[in-house]
Amino acid sequence: MNKGKKMRKRNILWLLSMILLMIGLGGCDSAKPVVDINPTLQESEVPSAEPSLLEQLEKKAEKGDGDALATLGYLYYTGENVDADLTRAVDYLEQAVNAGAGNSGEIMTLLGNLYLNGTLPVDEAKAFSWYKRGAEAGNATAKQMLGRCYRQGIGVEADPEQAVKWYKEAVADEDALAMQELSYLYLTGEGVEQNTEEALSLLSDAAYGGDVTAMVAMAKFYYVGEYLEKDFSKAAMWYERAANQGNPEAMYWIGCMYYNAEGVEGSYTLAAKWLRSALEAGYEDASVWVRTLEAAGF
Known about the structure:
The chain has helices spanning 3-22, 51-62, 66-78, 86-98, 104-116, 124-136, 140-152, 160-172, 176-188, 196-208, 212-224, 232-244, 248-260, 268-280, 286-295. By secondary structure, it is mostly helical.
């Protein structure tokens, strides 16, 4: 499982534990303030979906408890100590939204993802609808995805100005992916007046915010001197950061930079490490370099 998937699973598990505590089924005083919950909760500490707990949740769900419905939905979605059942998960999650679950914005966004990424039969109109509801509920990821829907015409007629509107809302919530995608619109003048300075500012913020695509873009601009003054050391910095996040293209380029001593101290050992990693990740351009380094004993 890659780092992104692990993080998404950890976030879902933490959210589950939070909901359980909120509805008084987490083995502690339900009156305990939510702010006391440990955000670094380990997976082994997440309350198990034991039969007795499931029965309590189901009883609460039957009475229309939104948080119980949400918890059951996440349990059946993740398959945590129950048999995963996507149909039941979606049913519970949709009921949770209608019952006013405390985390409705996150649920709406998840449902949008499920209808768009093929986990459910792809339905762009439903995905757009859920993203719109999630965005209107204040969820930053839903705002970013709604911007993408308007930009690319996913489930709705393309509307660059609406895309800019929702991207800006997500940027205000410090969503790094929205920063990266909005930077492209400022760079091209799509739906907004072209503004290279604003584009680069957003792209830099996105890169520092952890968006790997933005890191690679910054590296390219510094490497070739496009939009930014050529600077191999800064290019190497961004390529290496992106490579450490598992980006194959960045692995390839930082490997080449170590090989050629561009912006970094030359190192065939590090070049071999990164180029081999790029090749193993499916970046075929690295194959010639790997063979050359292996022939030289690296």
